[in-house]
Amino acid sequence: MAVSMKIGAYIDATTGVVTNPLENPFGDSVWRSSWLYSSLLVIKGKSPTEYRSIITNHSINDASSTNFLNYFSQHAISSSGWSVIGSAQQFSTDQLAPLLYLLECVSVFGSNDDKNAATIIMNSLLDLERVGTPLSGSPSGRIRSNLGYVIDVLCDKSRYDLTYRTTDLPFFLIPCFGNIECAHKKRRGAYKEAFSVALTAQSIGADAGQDEFSFFNAIALVALQALAWGTGDGDVRQWRESFHHMADKGGGPAFQITCGATPVNPSVDSFETATTCRDMDNDVVMSQRPSKFRDGTFPNPTCSAGSPRTIALDYVILKGLQLVWGS
Questions:
Q1: What average pLDDT does range 186-204 have in this prediction?
Q2: Phi, psi of 68 (to 5 degrees)
Q3: Residues in Cβ contact with 277 at an 8 Å cutoff, skipping those fewer than 6 apart
Q4: How, if at all, do strands 275-276 and 81-82 pair?
C-alpha cells in the first residue's frame, strides 16, 4: 500500500493538531503537536533554509503552529483543568512536558501571535497552580514540584514575566520570615532539586524498561533548559548526563544528541524518509520507544502487506534537537 509521505496530511486544518494516522487520530494530540511545532520553531529560528524545505516538502502550512496554539488557548483550557484536543483522554503531565518545551520555543523563536496565545496558556496554567487544581482527574494530571521548576523558569522576566503562585508557598515563607522574594528563591531551589531527582529516577526506570515514554519527554524539558540557560550551563551539562546510559545502550538518536554522544547512529539524515507502520507501533514518533531501537525494530520496520507505511515525525524532532545542542 502507498506510503503517506507528507506530514502535512496528519495536521487537522481546524485545530492545527498533529493527528495519528495509525489509530485513534486525536489521542495524544497535544503531545504530538507540541513535539512537532517546538522542533519546527527551533529549525525556523536557527536554520531558515532547512525549515522552508521541510514545510514545502511536507505540505505544512506555515501558520499551523499558530493555529494549534490559538485553538488550544481558546478551547482546551479552563479553571477546572485542561483537555486533549479532539479526545476524551485525560490531560497528563506527559502531555504537558513537550508543551512546556513548545512554550519556551515560542518565547525564543515565535511570532507575536504565537506569544499572545502562549501567554494565555501560561496564565491558565498558573491559575490552576495557584489553587492546586490538577490538569485533570487522572493520577498523572497533578503537577508535581519537578515540573513546577520548569514552570517557574518559564515565568522568568526574560520569558513570560509572570508571577508563579503555588499552594505550598506558605511553607517557604516561614523560614524567610514572610519575605516573598526569599520564599520564591527557596521554593525554586527545592523545585530544582526535585527536577534533578525526578530525572535520575526516570533514567533508572527507563534503563529497566519502565516508562520509556516519560523519559523521552524529559528530553524536551532538558532541551528547554538548554534554550533558557545555554548548553554550557553547569546544571544543563549535569542533566544531559542522565541520558548517556540510554544512548550507550543504543536507545536511539534522540538520547545520543541530548547527551552529546558522537557519532549519532543511526544518523539524523537517515530519518528524512523513515517510515513506520501499525505492525511495529501505534504512533509516528519512533524516538519515544528506545527499546525498539535496541532490538533493531527501528528505524526500518518490516511491515506486513496489509499494514501501510507512514512517514515518521522523527527527522523534524531530531533536527530540532541537533540545533538546540549545536551538534
A1: 96
A2: -60, -50
A3: 22, 301, 303, 304, 307, 308, 309, 310
A4: unpaired
Q: Is 304 exposed, middle or buried (0-12, 13-18, 19+ CB in 10 A)?
A: exposed
pLDDT digits (tens, 9 = 90+) for 52-96: 999 999 999 999 999 999 999 999 999 999 999 999 999 999 999
Phi, psi of 230 (to 5 degrees): 95, 150
Does the structure show a pLDDT above 90 at 208? Answer: no
Q: Where are the beta strands (DSSP E) in the chain?
A: 77-78, 81-82, 275-276, 310-311
The structural domains of the chain, ordered by start, are 7-325 (1.50.10)
| Contact present, 45 and 108 (Cβ < 8 Å) | yes
Instruction: Give residues with Cβ within 8 angstroms of 32, minimum separation 6.
Output: 17, 18, 19, 20, 283, 284, 285, 313
Cell numbers given for 194:
526535585
